[in-house]
């Protein structure tokens, strides 16, 4: 049993060595991909401003890159409440929801980590509508 000639033993050793090296690099790459993802999102984040006026959100349609931040400013003399569709449940992007009224002159910021076309509205006056399109990095 297990009588291997010298060449076979070398082949087995080489195979084991290759497995260890492959495993090491696989683990290393696996480990590396986790950390830079979140930090690169922060490094390249840009800030955009959307203001709600009497005649609607300006700009009404905005295209940004994944990880960008949008500041929703209240340009009305009454509170507003930015939230993702559908009104009133806000389920298409539940985190994209101020969760409370933003006072006149106030603002609410949100970082978009999910790609997609996100329709939103003013939860208090749902006829104010807009779209944030988030493209992949
Ligand atoms: Cu709503």
Q: What is the fold's blueprint, element by element?
A:
Layout: H1 6-43, E1 47-53, E2 56-58, E3 61-65, E4 69-74, E5 82-84, E6 107-111, E7 116-122, E8 129-135
The structure holds copper (II) ion.
Residues 83, 87-88, 90, 121, 123, 126 line the site of copper (II) ion.
Structure description:
This protein has 137 residues and is α/β, with parallel strands linked by helices. It folds into two domains: 1-43; 47-135, Cupredoxins -  blue copper proteins (Immunoglobulin-like, Sandwich), CATH 2.60.40.420. 28% of the residues lie in helices and 31% in strands. It contains one helix and eight strands; from the N terminus they run αββββββββ. Strands 2-1-4-6 form a four-stranded mixed β-sheet, with no helix packed on it. The protein has a four-stranded mixed β-sheet with strand order 3-8-7-5, with no helix packed on it. The chain starts with 5 loop residues before the first helix and ends with a strand. The structure holds copper (II) ion (CU).
Profile the largest sheet. 4 strands, mixed
Uncertain runs are 16-40
What is the C-level CATH assignment of the largest domain?
A: Mainly Beta
Count the beta strands. Answer: 8
Structural class: alpha/beta
Distance from first to last alpha carbon: 57 Å
CATH level-four homologous superfamily name of the largest domain: Cupredoxins -  blue copper proteins
DSSP strand content: 25-35%
At CATH level 3, the topology of the largest domain is Immunoglobulin-like
Query: What is the CATH architecture descriptor of the largest domain?
Result: Sandwich
Number of helices: 1
Q: Which molecules other than protein and nucleic acid are bound?
A: copper (II) ion
H-E string: HEEEEEEEE
Strand arrangement within the widest β-sheet reads 2-1-4-6
Number of domains: 2
């Amino acid at each position: 049993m297990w009588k291997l000639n010298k060449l076979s033993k070398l082949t087995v050793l080489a195979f084991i060595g290759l497995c260890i090296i492959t495993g090491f690099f696989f683990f290393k790459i696996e480990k590396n991909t986790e950390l830079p993802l979140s930090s690169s999102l922060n490094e390249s984040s840009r800030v955009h401003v959307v203001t709600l006026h009497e005649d609607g959100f300006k700009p009404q349609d905005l295209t940004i890159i994944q990880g960008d931040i949008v500041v929703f400013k209240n340009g009305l003399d009454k509170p507003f409440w930015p939230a993702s569709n559908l009104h009133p449940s806000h389920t298409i992007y539940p985190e994209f929801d101020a969760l409370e009224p933003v006072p006149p002159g106030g603002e609410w910021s949100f970082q978009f980590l999910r790609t997609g076309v996100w329709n939103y509205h003013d939860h208090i006056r749902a006829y104010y509508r807009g779209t944030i399109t988030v493209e992949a990095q």
